[in-house]
Design goal:
The protein is α/β, with parallel strands linked by helices. The protein has 7 helices and 15 strands. Helix content is 29%, strand content 19%. α1 packs across α2 and α6 packs across α7. The longest helix is centred in the last third of the chain and has 17 residues. The chain is globular.
C-alpha cells in the first residue's frame, strides 16, 4: 500500500515559469468564497477517505502551495476543518509551502510549513548578479535604472548545499531538499540552473535534510523533496535514460547512512 497526500497548487499560471515570454495569464487562480471551498473539499473527499492517505496525529496532511495568496486563510482552513468533522474525518494538518522562516502557521490555521528555498538570490555564479532579486523589484518600479542580466542565472550547487539549511529548522517546519534544477528549456534566458551539480553533493543535502528532523516526534519526521518529476525544470527523482536510478539510489544511500548513524527504528517519511 503506497501512502499519499494532496497539495493544492494555488497559483495563477502566467509568465516565464509556465513557458510564456510575457506575463500573460493562462489560467487565473481565484477565490470566490465559501461555496468554492466546499466544492473543492467534496471533490477531494474520496481521496481523504482512502486508508492510504497520510495522517499526522490522526489528521489529514494537506499542503497549500502559496497560503499568502488566499485572501483569508483562517476562513478557508476553518471551513475545511468543519467539513472534515461533518464527514467523519478527524481534521486537517495544513502545511504551508514556500513560506518565510518567520511565518507563524498557527495564526493562519496551519499546523506547519516548508520554508522557501531561493538559491537564485544568494549563490549566483557572478558576484555582481547577487543583487538581482532586488534589481528585479526595482525594474518593476523604475525599469530604465537597472539592466537585466544576460542569459539564465547560474547558481552554485556546492554553495547551496554547504549552507543548507540556512536557518535552523523549527519544530513547526519541515525540511525541503533540492535535486538538480534547470528550467531554461521553457524559460530561456529568464530561467536559472544549478551549476556543477553532483550526486555526492546531492547525497550531502539529503543527509542534512534527514538530520533536520531530529527535533521532531517520530510521526512528524517528514522531509519534502523538490521534486519527483518536474521534467520541465530538470528537477526530479524519477528514473531517466541519462542517469537511470542514480537519484533514487543516492537518496536511499543517504537515508541508510543516516539511519545507521542513529540506529533509527523508523525512517523519516519523505514526500
Amino acid at each position: 500500500i503506497f501512502p499519499f497526500c494532496i497539495a493544492w497548487a494555488n497559483q495563477t499560471w502566467k509568465g516565464t515559469w509556465h513557458g510564456l515570454s510575457s506575463n500573460k495569464v493562462l489560467v487565473e487562480q481565484t477565490y470566490p468564497g465559501k461555496q468554492d471551498y466546499e466544492a473543492h473539499f467534496y471533490y477531494l473527499l474520496k481521496a481523504f477517505q482512502d486508508p492510504r492517505y497520510i495522517e499526522v496525529n490522526g489528521k489529514k496532511l494537506f499542503q497549500v502551495f502559496q497560503p499568502l495568496d488566499i485572501p483569508n486563510n483562517n476562513f478557508f482552513t476553518d471551513c475545511w476543518q468543519n467539513l472534515a468533522i461533518k464527514e467523519g474525518i478527524n481534521g486537517f494538518h495544513f502545511v504551508g509551502m514556500h513560506m518565510p522562516s518567520d511565518w507563524n502557521p498557527q495564526q493562519s490555521g496551519y499546523s506547519s510549513f516548508v520554508q522557501a528555498a531561493n538559491p537564485w538570490e544568494r549563490y549566483l555564479e557572478k558576484p555582481e548578479m547577487k543583487r538581482d532579486f532586488k534589481n528585479r523589484i526595482i525594474r518593476k518600479l523604475k525599469p530604465t535604472e537597472v539592466s537585466k542580466p544576460e542569459g539564465p542565472r547560474k547558481v552554485y550547487y556546492k554553495e547551496f548545499v554547504e549552507h543548507y539549511p540556512e536557518t535552523k529548522v523549527s519544530d513547526k517546519e519541515y525540511p525541503l531538499i533540492f535535486t538538480d534544477w534547470d528550467n531554461t528549456a521553457r524559460s530561456g534566458k529568464d530561467g536559472w540552473l544549478f551549476k556543477d551539480f553532483s550526486f555526492d553533493l546531492f547525497e550531502q543535502m539529503c543527509y542534512k535534510g534527514f538530520e533536520a528532523t531530529a527535533n521532531k516526534p517520530e510521526n512528524e519526521k517528514f522531509v519534502f523533496v523538490k521534486s519527483w518529476n518536474e521534467w520541465a525544470e530538470g528537477n526530479y527523482l524519477e528514473p531517466d535514460q541519462k542517469h537511470g536510478r542514480t537519484y533514487l539510489e543516492t537518496f536511499y544511500g543517504a537515508l541508510t547512512r543516516y539511519n545507521n548513524s542513529i540506529q533509527a527504528l523508523k525512517s523519516p517519511v519523505v514526500l
